[in-house]
Amino acid sequence: MELNRLIKILYKLPLPLVITTVTIGAVMAGGCANETDAYAGRLNLPKQNKAIVRQLKYDDNTRALLDEISYLPEAYQLDKRVLNYLKDIAKDRKVTDNELAEFSDFDGNLSNRDELKYGTDLFDPDTDGDKILDGENATLTARDSKIQEYLGAGIVSRLVWGTMG
Ligand SMILES: [Ca+2]
Ligand SMILES: [Ca+2]
Ligand SMILES: [Ca+2]
């Protein structure tokens, strides 16, 4: 509907009805941010994060982004790089698929969630500086611990020394 026509129609209506209509319209337009607020509130994020994300339109990507933020330890949530990241994302009020993917892996190698599991730096692709990326290190460590497990169980030594059975 054209704005002019809308104004003409509103003119003809009694004043209380106009006020009600305009109020409902305003509440509906602001509804998205309120829903984002409510969801962010349930996740119990620091107020610095909330102040930024409350500008976001409420949809699946926004919900996924909020889950990613809430998964981070507070030191990361309040990290300047994370806050700047969020400010950038919130500029156009929406979270694109790319922005969501980038936010779930800050250094482009191994997801943030896995980095937290392995205790590696979320912003450094090679935390221990051995020129092997964190993702590869994690795989190697997982394999190592599997071997350690076998060694611990004595299976390998029994196989090697032929003392089985
Ligand atoms: Ca990473
Ligand atoms: Ca890393
Ligand atoms: Ca490494």
How large a portion of the residues is in β-strands, by DSSP E? under 5%
Tell me the radius of gyration: 26 Å
Overall form? elongated
Alpha-beta content class: mainly alpha
**Average pLDDT level:** 85
Main beta-sheet strand count, sense and barrel state: none
Q: Which stretches are poorly predicted, pLDDT < 50 over at least 5 residues?
A: none
Bound molecules: calcium ion
| Percentage of residues assigned to helices | 55-70%
> Total helix count?
10
User: What is the end-to-end distance?
Assistant: 86 Å
By DSSP, the count of extended strands is 0
Element-level helix/strand string: HHHHHHHHHH
Quick description:
The chain is mainly α and 165 residues long. Helix content is 68%, strand content 0%.
List the helices and strands and how they pair.
Blueprint: H1 3-12, H2 15-43, H3 47-53, H4 60-71, H5 74-77, H6 80-90, H7 97-103, H8 112-118, H9 134-152, H10 155-161
Bound molecules: calcium ion (3 copies).
Kindly describe this structure.
There is one protein chain. The chain has 165 residues and is mainly α. The protein has a domain of 102 residues. Helices cover 68% and strands 0% of the residues. It is built from 10 helices and no strands. Helix 2 runs parallel beside helix 4 and helix 3 packs parallel to helix 6. The longest helix is centred in the first third of the chain and has 29 residues. The radius of gyration is 26 Å and the shape is elongated. The mean pLDDT is 85. One calcium ion binds next to helix 9. The site of one calcium ion has 11 residues, from loops.
